[in-house]
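Morning run. Coffee first, then this:
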Amino acid sequence: MGKWDYSIFWQEALNQLKTELTEQEFAMWFNMEYENSQESTVIVSVPSAFYRDQVIQRYQNLIESVFYELSGQKITVEFEVKARNKDLVSSELKENQESRKTTKSELFLKKGAEAVKRTEHAQLRKDYVFDNFVIGENNSFAANAAIAIAKNPGLAYNPCLIYGGVGLGKTHLMQAIGNLAWKERGNKIIYITAENFTNEFVNAIRTQTTQKFKNKYRTADVLLIDDIHFLQKKNETQEELFHTFNALYDANKQIIFTCDRPVSELKNLSERLRSRFERGLNVDLLPPSYETRCAILAKKMEQRGVNIPKEVIDLIAKNISSNVRDLESSLTKLIAYFELTKKPVTLEVAQQQLRDSFGSPRQNNVTVDIIQKVVAEYFSLSYSDLRGKKRTKAISFPRQIAMYIAREITEYSTTELGIEFGGRDHSTVMHGCQKIEERLKAEPSLETTIQKLNQLIKDYNS
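And here it is:
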């Protein structure tokens, strides 16, 4: 035994932690091996960097406190990544499986029966699976976290909030978790949008069936709620979701949300519900890089069984940078052209068919600053007028138009737009956009003005 051999303390610490944690939690996160020690440091190995980061965040303080109780001195635990022998890992997994109460024959019969019953989940899109989700540098963290959640719902990263702009794959990733958990584990999965959750709750109050509503959502194994930004100002629905959250979390059931912005930017949300959203893992999805856009288009072509020239794919990837939805829309248009005209899709054809998509300000990295300058010049105002505090009609109307255009062609949230327009509240931005929408219905000529401004913005940015 070396001078600073803490292997006996390490083994005793594991024994003690095993009694303090649940069997599943210990089996999942304490797949570590003692390596060596120094005077006040113990070094243990873990199978991956991802595993290391999570153990440090979740358990390092706990492990070190147990060491202190056992040894009477402060010992730091360090984690190093070390690849494991596959046979050894398989053996450990086998032992964990055999330690379960269910016998192999019972497990086989149970899985066989469930496999017959489980085909496709009624609430989930069958194409929203991990195999169809292209992972790139913009979404790798979110995707890997989602896979970990699907394999161990309720144990890894609970709750989880996935946020980002439109068309970036939030719903795809959320439903992929549900599909995998449903097919492999047979969990009770409930997927619903925040709007429909609200509607169901209102209907339950109206029909005096709130207990039935509570039983439905509080007995789920995995609850997926899409677009929680819709819950702003819905105080009673927030209250119900708060209690539903607590019931599921206390029962170690998985809860996953999506939102179009970080939860910190949701202003009309109760603080205690906000704290629940922020309690777990919050991951963001960013617009895909050029390489990821090419990979997404290749994947979509493979799924559709079509072949489009590489130079056309390159053209789309370079000109459509906003989100996955816009990429797919452009590809679908070219596929439709080919199927309906029976003519090949050449570079010239693609440029002609997609000229409107390529010309959209959304694809040209337009900033709020550019929009403000163009609108101010068009209405013969100064740039500072739109960002200032004056509320005269001559300034407020152009400011509202600028807000409306910014919301339509950028990925900024209303909170971010409020900051760009002189530190205004997001509700002011929403009100301004609503005023323009109302005027568009009553004054068709205003549409022409906005189209002209969009063209000016595009020209300014080119």
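Residues 49-71 form the longest helix (23 residues). Good start to the day.
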